[in-house]
Amino acid sequence: MNTFFTEVCQTLVPRGEVKHGPLPPLLVAMTLVTGLVDAFSYLVLGHVFVANMTGNVVFLAFALAGASGFSIPASLVALGAFVLGSLGGGLLGSRLGQHRGRLLSITTALQTLLLSASAALAALSGNPVNASSSYGLIIMLGVAMGLQNATARKLAVPDLTTTVLTLTIVGVAADSRLVGGSGSKASRRLIAVAAMFVGALVGSLLIFHVSIVSPLVIALIVIASVAVTTRVLSTSDPAWVRTS
């Protein structure tokens, strides 16, 4: 148990970490953003995700089968926007990937711009959001989350992909000591799951009780904070910015 809480503290407040430096808590914050943004897209823009593409593939199948409440165009637009963002993230990764601090700061700066535009559009659209604004939001948010996912993949911090939790949850169970595993990294994996859950929960509560724009505003603040923090911490060119 002491080891578990030590790993939790080390993930959230890394001290003496050379290989990944401050990247773990920054990626946890970005996982929180995923929950916020997907809560907004699913509850406000219809049955569509802008970060978790597994859900969109399934939703597309539902729509093709004639299930009500699902949209073929919305699912396809979300998938296309995410792929476009991933291509952009891959391009940035190939050019900036040797300096992880610069890569993350530039990616999150771009996300900040996209989330700012999304929050402004959502605020102007009212509630419910009209069809044209809905597709505009799906595109901007899908691109932003594609950028994030590609960047997290390039940063290669174990168990912190910021969007995909299926393998993370499998790892918690399959590597547990109950089945003879080492139990290593269970704390980090559970933090990632908790961050996504909290983001989705907070986003949902804000939509139902405050305003539909609130989750995007919170996500914007978090991403902007990650951008500034990364920029400041990587200026001195510490060891963690270099890929292994």
Describe the structure.
With 244 residues, this protein is mainly α. It has a single domain (23-231), classed as Growth Hormone, Chain: A, CATH 1.20.1250. It contains 9 helices and no strands. The protein has helices spanning 2-12, 23-44, 53-64, 72-96, 100-125, 131-155, 166-174, 186-209, 214-234. Helix 1 (2-12) packs across helix 8, helix 2 (23-44) packs antiparallel against helix 6 (131-155) and helix 5 packs antiparallel against helix 6. The radius of gyration is 18 Å and the shape is globular. The two termini are 30 Å apart.
List key phrases describing it:
globular, 9 helices, Growth Hormone, Chain: A, single chain, mainly alpha, 0% strand, 72% helix, 244 residues
Question: Got a strand count?
Answer: 0
Q: What is the second-level CATH architecture?
A: Up-down Bundle
State the helicity in percent bands: over 70%
Tally of DSSP helical segments: 9
Q: How can the largest sheet be summarized?
A: none
- Which CATH first-tier class would you pick? Mainly Alpha
The CATH topology assignment is Growth Hormone, Chain: A
- Give the overall silhouette: globular
Q: Mean of the pLDDT scores?
A: 89
